[in-house]
Amino acid sequence: MSIRFSFGGDEHIFAEVSEEMSLEAFFTSLSMTNAVRAASIRGVTEICPANASFQIKFDPDQIKPDDLLKELQSMEGAAAKSDASLKTRIMEVPVFYQDPWTHETLMRFRERHQDPKSTDLEYAAAVNGLGSVEEFVKAHSSQPWFVSMVGFVAGLPFLYQMVERKRQLEVPKYLRPRTDTPKLTVGHGGCFSCIYSVRGAGGYQMFGITPMPIYDPNQKVSYLQDEMCFFRPGDIVKWKPITRDEYDAALEEVEANRFEPLIRDCTFSLSDFNRDIDGTNTKLMEVLHGR
């Protein structure tokens, strides 16, 4: 996997690890950005990892662009050989699938959708060869997802399904973006799921909504007082389908600032995962539920 570097203006170097998303590409990007951070290179002012790429911002008055490029290229070999394991967190995120708020929104924008006569979940089930919305929700929520990037909008996580590529759910984005998406919508575009951290425009299919805040710039939410963004790259997420009553109960806890997400520390090894995907996911679920 050879990294392709290119300059972005006078102050950025963009590094494309791979043209397609994979956990291998993510770990190479993570190793490279960790190495750049550890090297404390004079003139580097910002390090931004993404799904299968990363970008470095630098001050050209402190380091010449070509010198920084040589530094990055010298790290590539070591990154490729680094141990692809990670001490991270696994967490449960409740989701009210087929909720009334995203349903009302998707019905307002049907003329922008591939199939105006179906809902987003019905369309997603059909294009993935599943017989019903219930089957799709089961496929979406039964296996964990890997947070491969946080950004685009503050606090918004991109999540990559931890199953064999042939089993991954894929759904195209809307033909034209909506001008509205409810806050905390669980969306999906391509192979990525996401959670809209704020209300706004969007093009991902809408599957449901979570009551759990994931971004708090005022840092008043009990579990967001140290960091305003809940997710970090490398986190592992398990969706938990909930009913309307469970959603309302969770929302009451959120409004009283008593809601506490289920989070456990864990270790993820890419080698172990590739050797036995289902076995690794089973062990992760055991860690999550304390068995």
From TrEMBL:
<keyword id="KW-0067">ATP-binding</keyword>
<dbReference type="InterPro" id="IPR010016">
    <property type="entry name" value="PxpB"/>
</dbReference>
<feature type="domain" description="Carboxyltransferase">
    <location>
        <begin position="3"/>
        <end position="231"/>
    </location>
</feature>
<dbReference type="GO" id="GO:0016787">
    <property type="term" value="F:hydrolase activity"/>
</dbReference>
<keyword id="KW-0547">Nucleotide-binding</keyword>
<keyword id="KW-0378">Hydrolase</keyword>
<dbReference type="InterPro" id="IPR003833">
    <property type="entry name" value="CT_C_D"/>
</dbReference>
<dbReference type="Pfam" id="PF02682">
    <property type="entry name" value="CT_C_D"/>
</dbReference>
<dbReference type="InterPro" id="IPR029000">
    <property type="entry name" value="Cyclophilin-like_dom_sf"/>
</dbReference>
<dbReference type="GO" id="GO:0005524">
    <property type="term" value="F:ATP binding"/>
</dbReference>
<protein>
    <submittedName>
        <fullName>Allophanate hydrolase, subunit 1</fullName>
    </submittedName>
</protein>
